[in-house]
Amino acid sequence: MLPSSSSADIEGPTTPVNPHPRLSVSFSDKYFNDDDEPEFKITAAGCLGRCLNHIQIIDPNGKTYVAWMCIVTLTLLYNAWVIPLRSTFPYQTPQNRPYWMAFDYLSDAIYIIDMILIQPRVKYLNEGFWVTERMLLTQNYIKNKHFKLDVLSLIPLDFFYLLVGPELVILRLPRLFKTHTFWEFFSLVDRRLANPYTIRITKTFLCMMYLIHLNACAYYAFSIFEGIGSNSFVFSGEGNAYIKCFYFATKTATSIGKNPKPSQELEYIFMTFSWLMGVFVFALLIGQIRDIISTATRSKTEYRKLVDETLEYMRRMNLPQEMQRRVQLWFNYTWETQHTLGKLKRPELIKSISNRF
């Protein structure tokens, strides 16, 4: 039989407990003394990392993403309007060139932030489920054609400024490859608004104005090619160049008439191209406006048609005037409170009115 042993023999020698224990900290003892305090450094990289942690995943239907797309769209519109303007009209001078270039590279910075930090974090639907894994989001963005367009929009042709000078603003033309953000932004706003017809008309109006802007820039460039004031067709050189060229482009595109008569073959070609572009494009845009307005007033048109058919049916049935008046009041009240009569056709509507009256 084994000899019994006490618990003290089994546990071994005990160590005395320090009555004043030293607190454990996350810093190594060889870098931390009792007389020293830990030094916390705030760096730009650390702040950027903490900011990125807050925008790990971006909801494509959220207000934050819509606001950011608004900023990117305004940047695109700046490039789309200013690049043709500065390439043709003498609005870039050595005195204001630093301001123009500051806005240019600010827009480039917004493009870079959108491509590197925002778009790879936008979640997407796959088989009815939201994908939120960072690696999959980045791969989805890289496979998308928008990534290729974003890369093309940032081609650094500005380095040729060192050879030809900063006056050749046409080198920034690749910035227009980011046009898809314009359509995406208006699509997002269209889905969020309860009454999207105003934003649709605004989008169509912007397209019309931009086409006139391009035609005005082309007319001024053509005037420089032939010589400003050299004949009655080109820009005379008097007054504000952009306003007069924009007025000429508007008359040409809308086929109002009373345009300067061309006198040379190149002028005939330019006017023919301008007329064809104006007739085709404006017919397309005006057709879109008609569709927008007809869609916006479809419910009211159907309401009026149904009211007229119902009242005509009641007259043929020789119903009392008091009954017809009450039915008309019911129509007005229903439209003012609901702005719709539902999907009721005339037979169902007559039955519904009969039950009420």
UniProtKB/TrEMBL annotation:
Manganese found in the keyword field: no
Lineage: superkingdom: Eukaryota
UniProt keyword list: Ion channel, Ion transport, Ligand-gated ion channel, Membrane, Transmembrane, Transmembrane helix, Transport
Topological type in the membrane: Multi-pass membrane protein
GO molecular function, one term: cGMP binding
Cross-referenced InterPro entries: CNG_cation_channel, Ion_trans_dom
Localization per Swiss-Prot or TrEMBL: Membrane
GO CC, one annotated term: intracellular cyclic nucleotide activated cation channel complex
PANTHER family: CYCLIC NUCLEOTIDE-GATED CATION CHANNEL SUBUNIT A, CYCLIC NUCLEOTIDE-GATED ION CHANNEL SUBUNIT B, ISOFORM A
Protein name: Uncharacterized protein
Organism: Dendroctonus ponderosae
